[in-house]
Amino acid sequence: MRIIQLTPGTGSFYCGTCLRDNALTAELRRRGHEARMVPMYLPPTLDEDSTAEGEPLFYGGVNVYLQQKSVFFRKLPRAIDQLFDAPQVLRFAAHRAGSTEARGLGDLTVSMLRGEEGNQVKELNRLVAWLAEEKPDVVLLSNALLVGLARRIKERTGAAVVCTLQGEDSFLDSLPEPDRHRAWKTLSERAKDCDAFIAVSHYYARVMRERAGLPADRVHVVYNGILLDGFTPAPSPPRLPTLGYLARLCPPKGLHTLVEAYIILRQRNRVPHLRLRVGGSVTKADEQFVNQLRQRLTSAGVMDSVEFLPNLSRSEKIAFLQSLSALSVPATYGEAFGLYLIEAWAAGVPVVQPRHAAFPELIAATDGGVLCEPDNPQSLAEAVEQLLSDPEHARAMGARGRQAVMEKFTVARMADGVLQVIEQIRGG
Description:
The protein is an alpha/beta fold. The protein has 2 domains: 2-225 and 411-425, Glycogen Phosphorylase B (Rossmann fold); 242-408, Glycogen Phosphorylase B (Rossmann fold, 3-Layer(aba) Sandwich), CATH 3.40.50.2000. The protein has 19 helices and 12 strands. The strands form 3 sheets. It has a 6-stranded parallel beta sheet, with helices on both faces. Strands 9-8-7-10 form a 4-stranded parallel beta sheet, sandwiched between helices. Strand 5 (196-199), helix 11 and strand 6 form a beta-alpha-beta unit.
């Protein structure tokens, strides 16, 4: 089967969506399918071998922006557009992408959702012309913000279009009005052009059925999976109890909540010598936030036991996880999944997460962690303290999490689920 995965890249920082799509494409290839991951906007930044290597990039981020802002750029020939799609130009744009706030992207988001009726129709025509030559059987859209592409793709190629649902609501809800309302309304209308949707959790399937009015019989749940190569538990527990964080270092992921909880734990000192290790992607837009947290930790007198380790490679990430006694990413919003959880469990590390979003579902599926109240440093501190006060129990919980990942959250299980959805919509 010829399968093309369209995935927006970040260009400058690791993204769970890119990692998920890349792992899926690699597994589909391993099974003999002609699978390709084709980047959009910016190249993907990955900590593993890229399946997008050598592929053309569509909807270059600079061209998309310029075509939104001016009619002039919508009429330029491709030879000029190529200048804006040059790698050095996209690298420059990538470093600014992390600082782009949703409130400035409302009109662009609505335009993209409108597809052939939007301001980026020139980019859409180029994409579907290429797809028509490649003759895919299935086109996978990485997220629902791309549903505006589906109608023209189906008209030109006859391919089935399957859209993954993985966290679009938080971005859409951050848009200013009236763009927020227009975006949700347009997404709901354009979603009718997709043959099926794959939600990464039951929680998120419910969210998008309700928010976007998606028919229940077209929304399927397939859990994310990861490549397990190299993920093993540490041969022995950390010498000192160590609490960790692994995600983008930004407010929505709740790092400030974890910092406040850590300060509470250090002041109580019921878990002696507790360390905090913070890893994950950092963009230029995150630097001020991170500096504020450093100042807060310093003023509390605990910075001597805290490490910030940004932008880890794959091997560094695994070693980082192996150094932890527990992990917590207390996200403040409705996280659709949380790839960092199965990475922690794959390394035998238990987790402490807020009692909202997909976290209760994933912890129930693994028995690999405990829950606390959302956005509550005191509750988080108490949950961490209870877990780490019984190291043997914590290690057993981490071991159960690892076993569950091996059974339920592998890339092979993810590929099985995606292929089942494809076979269903293509008539078996």
